Amino acid sequence: MLSFFRATNSCSSNPCIPGPHNSTSSPTPKPPGISFSTLSLKSPDPYSPTTPTAASTHYHQVFSPSRLRLGEEPAPEGGLGEDRPSPQEQRGREEAPEAAQEPAEQSSEHSESLSQVIILSFRSDLQWILFCADLPSLIQEGPQCGLVALWMAGTLLAPLSSTPLERLVQVAMERGYTAQGEMFSVTDMGRLAQEALGCQAEVLYGGLGGPNRDHVLQHLVTGHPLLIPYDEDFNHEPCQRKGHKAHWAVSAGVLLGVQGMPSLGYEEDPELPGLFHPAPGTPRQPPSLPEEGSPGAVYLLAKQGKSWHYQLWDYDQVRDSNLQLTDFSPSRAADGREYVVPVGGVRAGLCGQALLLRPQDSGH
User: Is the predicted pLDDT of residue 53 greater than 60, yes or no?
Assistant: First the structure.
């Protein structure tokens, strides 16, 4: 049985994780890929999230496949134009945490308390391959979730010359894509990526399923980032709120459950039998992608601007959330702030769309 434990490393106690830096400075360049560390599956670290000293800080996180996170701790509010809760709302959440943590759309198996350690068991009839490029973390300040996700992706597209977040915000405002950091258009996000990062940008229409599914998975297996708009639940997982909780995430990895392992280019993890990852510096045979409709066989590894940590999301859950982004949040419409929303609204700008990014010299 393949299990992953929810836990986190403390920035101050892990010498492999540098402390926070100012967002205008580039992270220390690292080669693509994930550093795998030896961890005890029987005694995961206690839940002790790193508290950032300031907004808009980042670090590279050493990642272990035995510590993928299912769900996430709540973080400061601020999605696509969403501000922090009022004192009354915050008191209500503190007084009724169970109600806040048990959304109607989700089953209890996807919910968790802040201090709970989760064991997620995957199907034992499959073997698992983890593909993941190393992404830094960046905590958003205000409604900058899309631009923060783009900044994270940019570290893979031009790893030696990272573009500061401030530059992305400046260009987006100058081009009229945003008023205060919000991004309600995948098309505008693609234009911004091309101009500010000098990369290739492909807007995906028609959702993450159907004929687009294999295209997306091949993109991630190759190591390129994917930007995804979705509705964000209390623990940052995808949910279905008709676009009222619209948020952005970046994925640069995928966990595939396969019937048989390719014969070339993979090695089994010494800690988790049944989990494989690409062998460094070795040519590899592409895996056979799980068929659509096979439950629990594809998970996206994602980051977003309200947490330091990777999260593991069922692919179909992300697909369904992305497909129902139709309405502008009434609370945002009534908050008196200016937002840039494309003609046709949230449905035209985000629904069923995603952004595939590649380096300019990738040859695609």
Answer: no
> What does the angle CA 261 – CA 264 – CA 267 come to, to the nearest 5 degrees?
70
How far, rounded to the nearest angstrom, does the alpha carbon of residue 149 sit from its chain's CA centroid? Answer: 8
Per DSSP, the residues of 96-158 read -HHHHT--TTS-GGG---TTPPPEEEEPTTSEEEEEE---EEE---SS-HHHHHHHHHHHHHS
The catalytic residue among 11, 132, 145, 239 is 145
**Between residues 270 and 59, the one the model is more confident about:** 270
* Residue 145: active-site member: yes
pLDDT in tens, 199-224: 999 999 999 999 999 999 999 999 99
β-pairing, 200-204 vs 354-358, is antiparallel
Q: Is 71 left (phi over 0), alpha (psi -120 to 50) or beta?
A: left
Confidence at 103, pLDDT banded by 50, 70, 90? very low
